[in-house]
Amino acid sequence: MTIPELTSSPSLHTGTLSQEYTDLIAVVREFAQTVVAPVSAKHDAQRSFPYEVVAGMAEMGLFGLPFPEEYGGMGGDYFALCLALEELGKVDQSVAITLEAAVSLGAMPIYRFGTEEQKREWLPRLASGRALGAFGLTEPEAGSDAGGTRTTAVLDGDEWVINGSKQFITNSGTDITELVTVAAVTGAEGGRKQISTILVPTDTPGFTAGPAYDKVGWNASDTHPLTFDDVRVPRAHLLGQQGRGYANFLQILDEGRIAIAALAVGAAQGCVDESVRYATQRRAFGSVIGDNQSIAFMIARMQARAYVARTAYYDAAALMLAGKPFKQQAAIAKLISSEAAMDNARDATQIHGGYGFMNEYVVSRHYRDSKILEIGEGTTQVQLMLIARELGL
Fold first, then answer.
1. Confidence (pTM)
2. Domain residues for 194?
3. Which CATH number goes with the domain that contains 371?
């Protein structure tokens, strides 16, 4: 499978997509159904990383969707990535988050803030999917409060010496993970911590990825704690300006919220699709259960949630592509879509009855997976805080 050629900035209108976007959706949808779906239950049960699926996505060029061709990308845009995430999210959230984290958190900071030398050194491999990158932000005492970062990076001659720890880091311990961008305190300004971001190759002495977490969901997604014990990297590995790390990763998180919203919409729509399929086949009391108005109305409400959430992330993406402020819209999209995914997963499980509680059914995986969508890349409460601030409250 190959994705269609993408121009640098196709037109985007909510509800009316260009042929390029439509073709991309069709190709990723086929891949999700024929390659991802058949192995999803196995990887979820075994808690194994789907290397063969990642290789397929790499061959298609999905990891390079939003990057220019000069850096090994496909010449598309961020919205193209979102459309791919939505299709993958319908079938397997673990696969979708692997792509999302690799692109928006692993490679995008280098593209947004890196020097030309850093871009040419790292982006071709990350955009090809031959290597994965990760973003080391969260710590045991610094999650939503990123300003609480305790990991430090001190200059010693021409090297940064990094000490500290990170937790809940996606794509940080696979056999193809080659880079982690680490947020670290590099000094103080006006009594406040100066936070910078530094590129750390995973083969650097002193870097350790701890055992994988035993999670409720996203079982096929790679997530580890990280420790840095006198990790030394060249001074030139500073990403962006010293002291601008906090501002830079806030921008990355704003963009990432649109991507997470797209993934969540996929999960919400996947629950609708599975419920329609089940309700038109499952019979009880002499007819298919979809003939029961209570079931039909439940699914109709699920579809409404997915539609509204999709409209929200389309709008946020349109503003982003147009170079207009989108912080509030990204927060709204993330808030609405993550709640839609969780609500739809609950209702889909109810519609499936006892079968919905069996791991062999897709809706059971969505039920377990969707909760993290209300937590990762900014909790529901953080999104509400951001929206309130944009309103001047």
1. 0.94
2. 133-243
3. 1.20.140.10
Question: Are 277 and 375 part of one and the same domain?
Answer: yes
> How many folded domains does the chain comprise?
3
Q: Of 87, 255, 339, 377, which residue is the catalytic one?
A: 377
Alpha-carbon distance of 260 to 96, in angstroms, equals 9
Catalytic residue at 339?
no
Q: Going by DSSP bridges, is the β-strand pair 283-284/287-288 parallel, antiparallel, or unpaired?
A: antiparallel
Angle at which helix 245-279 crosses helix 78-91, to 10 degrees, equals 40
Q: Which residue has the tokens 């959230």?
A: 93
How many CB atoms lie under 10 A from the CB of residue 100?
28
Looking at the structure, tell me whether residues 202 and 290 fall in a common domain: no
pLDDT in tens, the chain (393 residues): 555 554 434 445 545 788 899 999 999 999 999 999 999 999 999 999 999 999 999 999 999 999 999 999 999 999 999 999 999 999 999 999 999 999 999 999 999 999 999 999 999 999 999 999 999 999 987 766 766 889 999 999 999 999 999 999 999 999 999 999 999 999 987 778 899 999 999 999 999 999 999 999 999 999 999 999 999 999 999 999 999 998 898 899 999 999 999 999 999 999 999 999 999 999 989 999 899 999 999 999 999 999 999 999 999 999 999 999 999 999 999 999 999 999 999 999 999 999 999 998 999 999 999 999 999 888 999 999 999 999 999
